[in-house]
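Design a sequence for this backbone.
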């Protein structure tokens, strides 16, 4: 990727962001980058909402408040300040999950860095996290599966008329592709992007209109954790939160990451239906049994 030695870390992140969302030529053409940065980042323009689909201005401002400099657009403020504050640019990005993945990778590489920092020591931008990952298969949260989503697209490419080309360097990232095309999948009844989040079940549970303009996973994560409707027929979020006092984290994400291995029940009937007692099984066996029980078929 092009850029001078004097390009700030924020501008490096912006270049990557615009390259994937607008045009891959921005990554190597400095003049094009400057023009695109002025148009999409440093100028207020509501017409670019769909192109910059990974940045939800209202959601970001709900976290940031009124602390933005008057001369700075919200998206510029995010790249300059929001990344350092570990604020999320869009509901689909779970910063706690992303930072835990980064810490795990650093630990496995024997790199001693502060939380949420990459090899350079700078805070990791979540856009860079999903775009720079090998194969573009990093997930923005615990529930979204780029592999399952790509499989869904490939299986239904004839029906839907588009696909994600695996060997195209400039291909659309699975997360971006999902946010732009989810409604087409939903209309055909073939939308699948998670082992645990059922978009049809969630839409019914949350009484979402069939004409909703917001995808089901964004709608889910945008709601306060205590107000999230169930998105899996085997997982009862209210029961799980109340029983195990899970208040600050998404209940289903917590169950998949931590709860299953601890023997936390996903609903009041799980152990009876499985015919097991949680205290009689090793942690790894319990983890697989409960995850398999909740995993969508």
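Sequence:
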């Amino acid at each position: 990727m092009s850029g001078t030695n004097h390009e700030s870390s924020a501008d490096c992140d912006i270049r990557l962001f615009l390259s994937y969302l607008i045009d891959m030529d921005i990554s190597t053409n400095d003049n094009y980058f400057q023009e695109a940065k002025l148009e999409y980042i440093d100028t207020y323009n509501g017409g670019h909402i769909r192109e910059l689909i990974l940045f939800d201005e209202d959601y970001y401002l709900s976290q940031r408040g009124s602390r933005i400099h008057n001369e700075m657009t919200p998206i510029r403020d995010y790249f300059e300040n929001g990344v350092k504050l570990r604020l999320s640019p869009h509901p689909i990005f779970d910063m706690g999950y992303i930072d835990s993945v980064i810490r795990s990778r650093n630990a496995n590489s024997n790199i001693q860095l502060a939380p949420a920092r990459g090899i350079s020591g700078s805070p990791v931008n979540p856009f860079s996290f999903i775009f720079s990952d090998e194969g573009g298969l990093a997930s923005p949260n615990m529930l979204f599966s780029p592999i399952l989503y790509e499989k869904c697209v490939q299986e239904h490419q004839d029906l839907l008329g588009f696909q994600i080309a695996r060997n195209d360097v400039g291909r659309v990232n699975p997360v971006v592709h999902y946010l732009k095309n989810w409604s087409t999948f939903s209309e055909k009844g073939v939308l699948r992007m998670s082992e645990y989040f059922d978009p049809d079940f969630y839409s019914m549970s949350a009484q979402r209109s069939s004409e909703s303009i917001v995808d089901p996973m964004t709608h889910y994560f945008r709601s306060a954790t205590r107000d999230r409707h169930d998105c899996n027929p085997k997982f009862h979020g209210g029961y799980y939160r109340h029983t195990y006092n899970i208040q600050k984290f998404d209940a289903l994400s917590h169950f998949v990451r931590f709860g299953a291995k601890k023997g936390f029940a996903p609903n009041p009937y799980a152990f009876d239906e499985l015919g097991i007692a949680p205290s009689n099984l090793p942690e790894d066996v319990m983890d697989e049994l409960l995850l398999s029980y909740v995993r969508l078929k």
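Residues 9-132 form one domain.
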